[in-house]
Amino acid sequence: MKPTALAPFFLSAFAWSVTLGMSHILVPLYAYELGYSALAIGGILSAPVLVHFAFTLIAGAFTDRFGGRRMALASYTACVLAGILFALSQSYAALLAGQTCLVISRAIFWPAIWGLAMQLPGDRGGQTGRLNSVTNVAQIVGTAAAGLLVTAAGFRYGFWALAGAGLCALAAMLAFAHGAPQAQAPRGIFAAYAAIARRRSTYYAILCAFMAGLPLSLSMSFYPILLVEHGHASDATGWLIALRAAGAALVGAWAGRYLRGIGGARVPVAAGIAIGACIAAVAFVAQALPVGLFMVGVGIGSGVMTVYFQLSVAEASTPAERGSALALSGLGWQISHFVTPLTMGALAELFGIGIAVAVFGALALALAAALWPLHAWALRGARV
Fold first, then answer.
1. Whether the Cβ atoms of residue 22 and residue 79 lie closer than 8 Å to each other
2. How many CA atoms lie less than 13 Å away from 62 in the CB half-sphere?
3. How far apart are CA 215 and CA 275, in angstroms?
4. What are phi and psi of 34, to 5 degrees?
5. 49: number of CA atoms within 13 Å, CB side?
6. Minimal CA–CA distance to 75: which of 111, 36, 99, 39?
7. 115-164 pLDDT, tens per residue?
8. What pTM, to 2 d.p., does this model score?
9. Burial letters 230-266, b for 16+ CB under 10 A, else e
10. Alpha-carbon separation of residue 92 from 28, 36, 182, 325, 330 (angstroms)
């Protein structure tokens, strides 16, 4: 397959990831604009979590059975519908419906797009790293674009733009001619999960995915509050948080090209230490330059851990079960998005947000140290 033939695949991932970045700004601020309380806004953002867990597992199994391209098309369709619902919404129920569609789109997207990336011709690590870089850059673009659109034209135009970006993703995937044959799941559509769940290395991969998701979980919850309390304006806070995605984008292609095999524990341990140390460091500095450097650092650690997690699943699973393996192991990301805000909220209530972030960084460092013995335990003659 010629490199130009892969352009629609990466373009579709880019366009969808733009909608992800836009939603991080548009959804909570629009709910706030409509006058809903913080508790009500939290309900809009957290209520569809269980839907996300369920659809992630469904998407993984369906990716194995029907192929990643079809599932990606379903994800993009749900994204377009979410944008339309948001643009037309004026009630809490409509906002919740739009957020549920958006969550379903996210849940389907990752197993589908990761599974497709691992079937692309060429070096698997290079293609996976390139995909991660593309999606991280797109999130930066989406975040910046949403802020500009809200300021210039209002929320409804922002949501119509989100729907338009989802439509671009749909059109690009329709133009993507995927020539690799799709392996069919040999048993029942969900049967692969039973075998995957019995493997020790599945839980090791879940922990790696959890570590990789921590920086994004904080960026979507308490990092903005911490930076505002440090005296940064809202626009500066947005750019500082965007540096996390920039760090992940910078390292993604490099890590995918040079990371080979999962036999050693040094790479995930080093990435985990970078994540934990940079999370904690942000609690103790207020100046924009060091904060920006630490945000880049946490993005680099997360980017390396993400590629390592993806390659570990790819190496230890068969093509017929890869979508299911990616979905089950990728639940670590969703667990992070669910647990991190709750834990941080409890710690902030007890000790204040600065101490809470520092404590959370220390906990992340402890998890990074635990990866070393867990690596040997998990990979001892096991598949993911």
1. no
2. 20
3. 7
4. -80, -5
5. 16
6. 111
7. 888 788 776 667 777 888 899 889 888 888 887 888 788 889 999 999 99
8. 0.77
9. bebeeeebbbbbbbbbbbbbbbbbbbbbebeebeebe
10. 12, 8, 41, 36, 30
